[in-house]
C-alpha cells in the first residue's frame, strides 16, 4: 500500500504579509533617500521646486503648454543636480598643525591630508576647514583608489584666544549650488594663541621657606637659617642649647634663627572691564601678568594665577600661557579688584608675594583697599596697565605701585622696585 503526499496549500495571508514587508522595506529606504536629499537641498533648490510646482499648476489650469514645459525643464535640472550627490566620500582625513601654540601675531601653519582607502575612485569634492568663527575651503580633485592629496594652510592670529580648528567637513555638491551634502571627518584641534610677553632678568620678587630659602626679618626659635645666640628662656627647646657658649659664659645660651619663607607667588589679574579704558589696555595687563609669571617660574617659585571667579592652572610656563589665552572680561556681578583681593586673602593666606594687575580705571582708594585686604606679611606689588603713560613708581601703604604704559617698560619699572 503506497501513501501519496498531499500537495501543500499556500496560505494567502502569508503571501500578503510578505509583500507588505517588502513594500515597507522599500518605503523606508525611499524615505531615507528623500530625507537625505531634502537635508542636502539649499535655499535656491527650494525656490526652484516651488516655482516648478507653481508653473505646473498654472499650465494645467490655464492650458498654457509653455508653463508646463518650463516646469519640466526645472524638474529635469533639479534631478540632474541631485545626481551629483551620488557616490562615496570615504576619505581618510588627517589634520596636522605644526604648532598648537603660537604668540599673537604669528602664523600657525598646518597641513590637511586626504587619502582614498577604497578600491574605487572618489569624484571631485570640496573640503571645508572651520577656524574659529571663519572657515577655509579647499577644492579636492578626483582621487583614484589609494591616491592621496595634501593641502597646506596658514592661520593668521591677530587676536589672543583659544581657536578651534576643525572638524574637517567633506562637501559634495552640484555646479549650480542647489544641493550640498556634508560629512564631518576627524576631530577639532585647539590652537592656543598666547599673549605677548617679555623676558627680563633680575632679582626674584618672591621669598623662599625651604632649605635654600631667603631669610626674612622675623625671628624664630626653630628654622634652618642661624641668626644669633640668646639667653635661655623658660619654654625654649633644650635641643637648641649651645653648650660651648654656655660653658664659656656660665649662662645657658640657645640658638636663635631667622624665619625663611616659601616661594608662594600669587598673581591676581583683574578681568573686570570697568577697570580698563579699552580692550587694548586689558591685553596689556594680560601680557604683564604672563611676563611676571614666567619670571617667577624661572626662579623656581610656586605660582598661582587668580582671576575673578576661579583659579587658573599655572604650574608651568606652558600652562600659564594657555590659561591666559582663554581669559576674557568678567561679568560686573563678579566684582573688581577689591573683591579679587579679598578672595586671594581668604584662599591663599600664606602667600609670600602678591602681584595685583589691573587697569588705569581703578581708583586710588580702591587700589589702597585692595592692598590692605591682602594677607598680612606678604609683599604686595600692584602693577597698573596704563597704555601710553610713562613708567612710574609710588607707594600706597606698604605696597609698591608701578604704572606701565607699554610691555617693554616692564623690566625698567620692576628695576625701580628692586633697587
From TrEMBL:
Domain spans labelled DUF58: 230-401
Q: Which domain of life is it from?
A: Bacteria
Matches recorded under InterPro entries? DUF58
Presence of keyword Transcription: no
Membrane: is it a keyword of this entry? yes
Provide the transmembrane region boundaries: 34-57, 63-86, 337-357
The entry's keywords: Membrane, Transmembrane, Transmembrane helix
Tell me which PANTHER family the record gives.
SLR1927 PROTEIN, SLR1927 PROTEIN-RELATED
**By what name is this protein known?**
DUF58 domain-containing protein
Amino acid at each position: 500500500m503506497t501513501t501519496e503526499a498531499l500537495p501543500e496549500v499556500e496560505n494567502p495571508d502569508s503571501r500578503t504579509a510578505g509583500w507588505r514587508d517588502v513594500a515597507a522595506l522599500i518605503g523606508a529606504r525611499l524615505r531615507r533617500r528623500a530625507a537625505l536629499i531634502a537635508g542636502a537641498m539649499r535655499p535656491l533648490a527650494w525656490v526652484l521646486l516651488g516655482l516648478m510646482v507653481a508653473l505646473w499648476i498654472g499650465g494645467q489650469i490655464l492650458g498654457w503648454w509653455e508653463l508646463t514645459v518650463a516646469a519640466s525643464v526645472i524638474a529635469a535640472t533639479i534631478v540632474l543636480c541631485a545626481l551629483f550627490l551620488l557616490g562615496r566620500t570615504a576619505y581618510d582625513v588627517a589634520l596636522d598643525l605644526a604648532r598648537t601654540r603660537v604668540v599673537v601675531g604669528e602664523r600657525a601653519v598646518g597641513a590637511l591630508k586626504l587619502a582614498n582607502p577604497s578600491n574605487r575612485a572618489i569624484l571631485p569634492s570640496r573640503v571645508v576647514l572651520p577656524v574659529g568663527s571663519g572657515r577655509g575651503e579647499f577644492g579636492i580633485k578626483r582621487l583614484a583608489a589609494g591616491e592621496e592629496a595634501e593641502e597646506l594652510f596658514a592661520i593668521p592670529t591677530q587676536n589672543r584666544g583659544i581657536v578651534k580648528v576643525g572638524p574637517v567637513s567633506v562637501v559634495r555638491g552640484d555646479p549650480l549650488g542647489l544641493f550640498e551634502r556634508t560629512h564631518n571627518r576627524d576631530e577639532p584641534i585647539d590652537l592656543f594663541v598666547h599673549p605677548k610677553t617679555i623676558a627680563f632678568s633680575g632679582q626674584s620678587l618672591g621669598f623662599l621657606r625651604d632649605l635654600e630659602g631667603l631669610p626674612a626679618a622675623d625671628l624664630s626659635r626653630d628654622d634652618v637659617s642661624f641668626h644669633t645666640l640668646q639667653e635661655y628662656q623658660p619654654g625654649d627647646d633644650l635641643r637648641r642649647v649651645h653648650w660651648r657658649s654656655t660653658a664659656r659664659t656660665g649662662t645657658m645660651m640657645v640658638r636663635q634663627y631667622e624665619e625663611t619663607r616659601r616661594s608662594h607667588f600669587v598673581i591676581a589679574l583683574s578681568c573686570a572691564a570697568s577697570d580698563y579704558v579699552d580692550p587694548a589696555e586689558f591685553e596689556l595687563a594680560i601680557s604683564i601678568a604672563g611676563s611676571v609669571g614666567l619670571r617667577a617660574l624661572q626662579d623656581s617659585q610656586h605660582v598661582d594665577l587668580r582671576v575673578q571667579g576661579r583659579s587658573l592652572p599655572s604650574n608651568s610656563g606652558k600652562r600659564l600661557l594657555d590659561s591666559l589665552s582663554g581669559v576674557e572680561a568678567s561679568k560686573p556681578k563678579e566684582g573688581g579688584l577689591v573683591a579679587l583681593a579679598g578672595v586671594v586673602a581668604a584662599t591663599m593666606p600664606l602667600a609670600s608675594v602678591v602681584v595685583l594687575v589691573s587697569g588705569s580705571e581703578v581708583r586710588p582708594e580702591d587700589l589702597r583697599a585692595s592692598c590692605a585686604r591682602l594677607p598680612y606679611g606678604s609683599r604686595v606689588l600692584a602693577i597698573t596697565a596704563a597704555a601710553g603713560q610713562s613708567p612710574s613708581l609710588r607707594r600706597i601703604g606698604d605696597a609698591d605701585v608701578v604704572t606701565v604704559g607699554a610691555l617693554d617698560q616692564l623690566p625698567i619699572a620692576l628695576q625701580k622696585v628692586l633697587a
